[in-house]
């Protein structure tokens, strides 16, 4: 399954979300729809999940995290992790109806995320150098 994730880091912590009814935190983002680019999917998903309007011109590639999906019966998730900046005047991230909670995570929180999220947290130092 192809997905996108937003690499949003502040003060050395990665923004993560917990969906209602789930026990793990995920990198904000989601599935890429047919005919949609990774950048388009990221902009759409972040607006839906967090109310943040990303600047499409600021979207740039990071890396790919591939791992078994949490609760997907061993099905692999290929998450294209992207950097992007909020558009001027965009609000701070706020949970939507499907998001129960936001958290700012460090590598010490690896037990709170699924396998693909662990890959991202393991690479947090690389992410910090790129932002």
TrEMBL record:
Cofactor(s) in the UniProt record: Mg(2+)
GO MF term set: hydrolase activity
Domain Nudix hydrolase: 1-128
Keyword Hydrolase applies: yes
Domain of life, source organism: Bacteria
Keywords: Hydrolase
Similarity section: Belongs to the Nudix hydrolase family.
Protein name per its UniProtKB record: NUDIX domain-containing protein
């Amino acid at each position: 399954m192809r997905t996108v994730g937003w690499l949003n880091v502040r003060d050395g912590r990665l923004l993560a979300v917990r969906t209602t009814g789930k026990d793990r935190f995920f990198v904000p983002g989601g599935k890429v729809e047919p005919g949609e680019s990774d950048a388009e999917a990221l902009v759409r998903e972040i607006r839906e999940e967090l109310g943040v309007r990303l600047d499409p011109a600021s979207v740039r590639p990071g890396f790919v995290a591939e791992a078994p999906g949490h609760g997907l019966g061993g099905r692999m998730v290929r998450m294209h992790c992207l950097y992007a900046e909020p558009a001027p005047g965009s609000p701070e991230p706020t949970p939507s109806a499907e998001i129960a909670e936001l958290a700012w995570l460090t590598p010490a929180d690896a037990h709170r995320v699924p396998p693909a999220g662990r890959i991202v947290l393991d690479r947090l130092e690389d992410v910090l150098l790129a932002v």
